[in-house]
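hey m, so remember when u said the tokens were messed up on ur end? i reran from scratch. heres the input so u can diff it against urs
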Amino acid sequence: MTIPARLSSFEVQKLIQQVRENIRVRHYSLRTEESYVHWIQKFLRFHSFRNPIHLQESDLSKFLSHLATYQKTAASTQNQATSALLFLYRNVLQQDLQWIHNIQRAKTNFKIPTVFSHEEIRSILNQLDGTTWIMASLLYGSGLRLMECLRLRVKDVDFHSRQIVVRDGKGARDRVTLLPESLIVPLKKHLQRVQSLHELDLNEGFGKVYLPFALQRKYPNAHSEWSWQYIFPSSKRSIDPETNQIRRHHVDESVLQRAIHKAIRICGITKPGSCHTLRHSFATHLLESGCDIRTIQELLGHKDVSTTMIYTHVIKKGGVGIKSPVDTI
């Protein structure tokens, strides 16, 4: 069978579908899927849809060099593109060519995370109210990532034990983190409103939430049960693109992102902060209060303690923890 030199539009679509299927078999996140598809499509367009089987190491390097030289992409972005292309060749095309192992990844720079002070955190939270205040308080008070917060389900919060179970977090790992005492009453009141909304959906013939993996087949009625509902549901129902069913998904991430950015601007904070800065602040403030690094690692869900160690650089006053000689004159 002759292998075509260039891919037709139909062949490109077929290849992309194979990429998606291979990703889903490995239970990668939807964000990873969209990211890999994006870079593979960009790679194909860059080489005028030449069949990737016919491309060599130099062609791959040329594309990555283009990203770094002309598009000025960050090292982490370039490494993401590299991972997508390696996935294409190894897992989709089944091409374990020798030159694939020679591909060098971009060297990432060491960056100290931005951290808000206690006063800055207080002023930001004072600018928020309702649902956005609860979500932002969980990011700072429990060390959650933005999407971990949005994907929380009712069953994941244990008020009695004062803890939150993060399901299928980054790296497909579950973990347990703390539930702040100050959020118990507001969160319970919030859940009462959410439950009323869920009951309204059920009365109108809806109320079936998305379930991951094969849970829908394992627990046929779970999708309409209260315990499986999102804690922070969207204000509107929408069509699930995979099943075409009308569901109420979790609130969009841009809701909290916009609220945080607006609060930072109103407070006059000049630091380049975001939702993730609240998580950085959580870890740094725990470390400053004397919490041991291993406990913080577990609360954050870091696989390696070296990732958590970056916060030790933040709490050193004066950059290196010493006094400048000019201050001793």
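this time it looks ok to me. The radius of gyration is 23 Å. if urs says something different then somethings off w ur setup not the seq
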